[in-house]
Design goal:
7-stranded mixed β-sheet; 6-stranded antiparallel β-sheet
């Protein structure tokens, strides 16, 4: 298919959580203490290892690799190196397209239809093929303007040198504007320059003397991307057809050009490869190999292509005039294409294979092999491109940015949308071949929600070809383990960073294996039972609550995992045995329901051994308006309020009425704050 990069020679912390508007009394955020857990060319010099990786942040992924582009078919830098060590263009083509035959086209006058872009040398994401206005002018020789309307036949008119026509889209048709006025509408208008084979329709309009041959003319075209903006005019061989676009009020432009004139303007190699005075870069055999590949590609595409990186970059005569060496390569290989089983081959190419060619899929023909490419490992020299031999690249991205880009935007190898949460590990699990130097084929992504297998090519496409330049991934460095008490989602500027770090260090809370703390997540009843046990054990080392691998369920709805120490049943059994928790009914606990804030208050008081003090509170002690005296949790919630551990919300402010918001979920971040308040109490 296409070459997926623009050649370098185309001269060319989380946001701070808003401070709560209420006094943080409410507590608890679930203080989850721990989460569940072919032929090889000769004479190639040795090549250095990829460049060392630059320093990256602890939470970054760093990918290093070789090559630039898809690496299917010919490697342009590999062709350059081969040419520099004396290989001919036919040698180069035989290596990159094995089993093909080099022979001329049956029809040397084959015409290619090319859809014209505003700036074909740029990324397709930054250009357009829809125009508000198109200006056409003949150069070198006059041109004939053919105006076509379905059912009405064609009309023609001559445009002399110095003349100009302007085309616009009016009502979904093409209108021609000349100094004499407007004509149309038409389905399309075609500018046909005079050639030696076909002089102007009205010879009297020509500026050529009667006894002089008519030179091949060209068309100068100015493309207006808006009513006030146009790109620099360019000249083209062949005819230019302008028709209405699928976009309202816009026009499309096509160039119908003889195949060899088309190849003269292909801008797909470093330009100084075709400049004899560029002694360090000159490689005419590589340019000739490119000419044959480009010609073959266009023919195999049915002679209907775009002028940009969706196919191959074609810039018209204006480019040819600047770089005559590229035009010379087209002339020196005139008509030659690659054949395989009586068909012209789709001669894919890219900038650098990185030392190994690959293929699109297993259905590709044999002339697009997976094979070592030592020529590409030897080029480019650092003096011509800082990427150096093998075309080294590095792609660095934070775990958070990568995870955001991946989730919901990438599909795994079975077609399912990837949803992993925070990704913390990426591994190459399959390559094109057993050779570890070949291209990555499948990546395994591991995140907080599980793993996913994705194709290396789809992963690369997601992040963009200019960032991840190939699938020849040499190494992947996953984010470094975080220091104890630090989490990817609790940066140093996070509002509760210090409290979370403190309770982690104290062993009262911990994060997940993914490196997350999940401060906004609520806490379930079984999780808070675990917190209560851990808090008691931390504060009363001489009165430890034992956690053992139980063999019977503490409640009928708490799952049991015999042989696994620390599952839900073990923690709930320990809390129940110590009198820290009770069931919703005598036989059920509802372990996965979110713990109510009043329930949490009772668990904390029991864990801290304050039941007697709470029970001794005077009935008139101010508490929370939404935890009435009749509530079984009134004493615990009110006692924690008197200790400053729970503060609640004053509503309205200044009224003296405080609410606990008992039905709101208890969040992990608030739980860290509450635990710190407990730790700060005098012993």
């Amino acid at each position: 298919m296409k070459k997926d990069r623009v050649a370098s020679g185309f001269r060319t912390s989380f946001k701070l959580v808003a401070v709560l508007s209420f006094t943080l009394g409410l507590m608890g955020a679930g203080l989850l203490l721990a989460a569940p857990a072919g032929a090889t060319p000769a004479s190639v010099p040795a090549v250095a290892e990829p460049a060392p990786v630059t320093a990256a942040a602890a939470g970054d992924f760093v990918f290093t690799g070789l090559g630039w582009g898809h690496a299917v078919g010919m490697s342009q830098w590999g062709a350059w190196y081969a040419a520099r060590i004396g290989k001919s263009f036919s040698d180069i083509l035989a290596f990159y397209y094995p089993g093909t035959t080099l022979a001329p086209l049956a029809d040397p006058d084959t015409v290619v239809k090319v859809k014209i872009s505003s700036e074909p040398w740029k990324s397709v994401s930054s250009i357009t093929q829809d125009y508000a206005q198109v200006d056409l002018e003949p150069t070198v020789a006059p041109m004939t303007l053919l105006e076509h309307s379905a059912g009405d036949g064609d009309t023609t008119k001559d445009v002399p040198l110095g003349g100009k026509v302007t085309l616009t889209n009016v009502g979904g048709k093409v209108v021609v504007v000349t100094p004499a006025g407007s004509e149309g509408p038409f389905d399309y208008v075609e500018a046909r320059p005079a050639t030696a084979a076909q002089p102007p329709v009205s010879p009297g309009d020509s500026t050529q003397a009667a006894d002089e041959p008519t030179p091949d003319g060209r068309v100068k075209i100015t493309l207006w991307t808006s009513a006030t903006t146009h790109v620099t005019a360019r000249e083209y061989w062949g005819s230019m057809r302008v028709q209405y676009s699928s976009a309202a009020g816009k026009l499309w432009v096509y160039n119908y050009v003889p195949i060899d004139k088309y190849v003269r303007s292909i801008a797909e190699v470093e330009y100084d490869w075709a400049v004899p005075t560029a002694a360090d870069a000159y490689a005419p055999e590589a340019v000739e190999a490119q000419a044959v590949a480009a010609r073959s590609y266009a023919v195999a595409k049915g002679c209907s292509v775009q002028d940009n990186q969706n196919d191959q970059c074609y810039r018209g005569y204006t480019f040819e005039a600047q770089y005559p060496g590229i035009a010379q390569a087209a002339e020196d290989t005139a008509g030659l294409v690659l054949w395989y089983q009586n068909e012209v081959v789709l001669a894919n190419f890219s900038a650098s294979s990185g030392g190994y060619t690959t293929r699109w899929d297993d259905s590709d023909p044999p002339y697009l092999p997976i094979q070592p490419d030592p020529w590409s490992l030897a080029a480019p020299p650092a003096g011509l491109d800082p990427a150096g031999p093998g075309y080294n690249w590095t792609f660095t991205i934070s775990a958070q940015e990568l995870s955001t880009d991946v989730d919901g935007h990438l599909r795994d190898t079975s077609g399912r949308t990837v949803d992993l949460g925070l990704v913390n590990l990426i591994q190459v699990v399959d390559r094109d071949s057993p050779d570890p130097a070949s291209h990555a084929k499948t990546l395994q992504l591991t995140g907080e929600k599980g793993t996913a297998m994705v194709s290396a090519e789809s992963f690369r496409a997601l992040f963009g070809y200019s960032r991840m330049r190939s699938t020849l991934i040499v190494n992947i460095v996953s984010p470094a383990p975080l220091p104890a008490g630090e989490y990817y989602d609790v940066g140093p500027n996070y509002l509760y960073h210090d409290q979370i770090a403190r309770v982690t260090a104290a062993g009262l809370m911990s994060g997940y294996d993914s490196g997350l703390f999940k401060p906004e997540s609520p806490v379930s009843r079984w999780q808070f039972a675990k917190i209560a046990v851990c808090l008691h054990n931390a504060l009363y080392p001489d009165d430890q609550i034992a956690v053992v691998d139980v063999s019977t369920r503490p409640f009928s709805d708490v799952p049991l995992q015999p042989g696994v120490l620390g599952d839900e049943s073990d923690w709930v059994a320990a809390a129940k045995g110590a009198g820290l928790v009770a069931g919703v009914t005598p036989t059920t606990f509802q372990p996965y329901d979110i713990v109510r804030r009043d329930q949490m208050a009772t668990m904390l008081v029991r864990a801290l051994g304050w039941e007697a003090a709470a029970a001794a509170l005077a009935p008139e002690t101010p508490g929370f308006a939404d935890v009435p005296a009749a509530s079984p949790h009134w004493a615990a919630a009110t006692y924690l309020k008197t200790k400053g551990i729970l503060q609640g919300y004053e509503e309205p402010v200044g009224s003296g009425n405080w609410f606990l918001h008992v039905a709101d979920p208890t969040l992990r971040k608030h739980g860290a704050v509450i635990l710190c308040r407990i730790l700060d109490l005098p012993r």
